[in-house]
Design brief:
Blueprint lengths: L9 E5 L11 H15 L4 H15 L2 H8 L4 H7 L6 H4 L4 H8 L7 E5 L7 H4 L8 E3 L14 H11 L7 E5 L2 H9 L4 E5 L5 E4 L2 E4 L14 E3 L5 H4 L9
Parallel strand pairs: 1-2, 1-4, 2-3, 4-5, 5-8
Antiparallel strand pairs: 6-7
Helix pairs in contact: 1-2, 2-3
Length: about 240
C-alpha cells in the first residue's frame, strides 16, 4: 500500500449513481444483466431474483455472493454485466460537474474516487479522469476481494492513498449504508447523495429513492444532498474562495 507525506484531507467521490443521475437508468440496465447472469447459472427467474437480492443485501455486491458460493469467474461476470452496458450512450460530459471538480482547492484537499465496480469507464466518459488523483475499485483478480460497505474496503482505500487519519476524509455516496459504514469508521465529513423521488434498482429490485433509514440504523450527522452542487455549501472549506 502507498505511503505518503501528503497530509491534505481527501475528498472521496463514489462514481455510479453519484457522478451521474439515477435517471440515466444505468442501475436498471445493470440489474437486468445481473438477473440474466443468475439465470444463466441454471436458476429460475424467481430463484435468481431472490438470490440477487440476498447477496446484494448480505455483501453489498451481488458478485461477492456469486464468487463465494458459485465458483463464478468475476471477469466473465464483469464482461457480461458492467462491460456490456453502453455507457457512452447513457451518460455524457457535464460542464457543470467538471467546473465543480475544477473549483475544489487542491492546495487544501486531494480528490479521489472509489467504487464497487472493476476499473470503471465513467470518469473518462465524464471527462473527470484528469481531475481525480487516485482511484480505488474492487479488484476482481484478488481472492475474496473487498467492497463497500465492508470496513476493510475503507481501510484499504485509506492505505492506498497513504492517509492514516479518518477525520481527514470527506465522502459522498448515493448508498446510505455505504456512507454510514464510512462514518462509523471515523470518516468525519459524510454526505448522502439522495435524488429523492427517482426510481433506482438495488439488488434487482426497483425502489423509489428516499432518505428513510433502516430499523436500527445509527444516528449520525450525515447530510443529504439532491445535487452535487450543494457540496459548495456543505463543504465550503474545500472550494476555492472567490475574490
Amino acid at each position: 500500500m502507498a505511503t505518503s507525506n501528503d497530509d491534505r484531507p481527501i475528498v472521496w467521490f463514489d462514481i455510479d449513481n453519484t457522478l451521474y443521475s439515477t435517471s440515466a437508468k444505468i442501475s436498471h440496465a445493470m440489474g437486468e444483466r445481473i438477473h440474466a447472469y443468475f439465470v444463466s447459472l441454471g436458476l429460475t427467474h424467481e430463484e435468481a431474483s431472490e438470490l440477487h437480492l440476498r447477496y446484494y443485501t448480505q455483501y453489498g455486491l451481488a458478485l461477492r455472493g456469486l464468487t463465494r458460493h458459485h465458483d463464478v469467474d468475476p471477469l466473465d461476470f464483469d464482461q457480461k454485466c458492467d462491460g456490456s452496458i453502453p455507457l457512452e450512450e447513457m451518460i455524457s460530459f457535464s460542464p457543470e460537474l467538471r467546473k465543480l471538480f475544477e473549483d475544489i482547492d487542491r492546495s487544501k484537499v486531494r480528490v479521489w474516487a472509489l467504487t464497487n465496480a472493476y476499473k470503471p469507464r465513467v470518469l473518462r466518459i465524464l471527462k473527470l479522469d484528469d481531475l481525480v488523483e487516485g482511484l480505488v475499485y474492487c479488484d476482481y483478480l484478488a481472492k475474496d476481494f473487498v467492497c463497500k460497505p465492508e470496513p476493510e474496503y475503507y481501510k484499504m482505500a485509506m492505505a492506498k492513498a497513504g492517509l492514516s487519519d479518518p477525520s481527514k476524509c470527506y465522502f459522498v455516496d448515493d448508498n446510505r449504508g455505504n456512507v454510514d459504514a464510512a462514518r462509523a469508521l471515523g470518516w468525519a465529513h459524510c454526505v448522502h447523495f439522495c435524488e429523492k423521488g427517482l426510481e433506482g434498482v438495488e439488488g434487482g429490485r426497483i425502489l423509489q429513492i428516499d432518505n428513510e433509514r433502516a430499523p436500527g440504523a445509527p444516528d449520525n450527522d450525515v447530510i443529504d444532498v439532491t445535487t452535487l452542487e450543494e457540496l459548495r455549501k456543505v463543504w465550503p472549506e474545500i472550494f476555492k474562495q472567490s475574490e
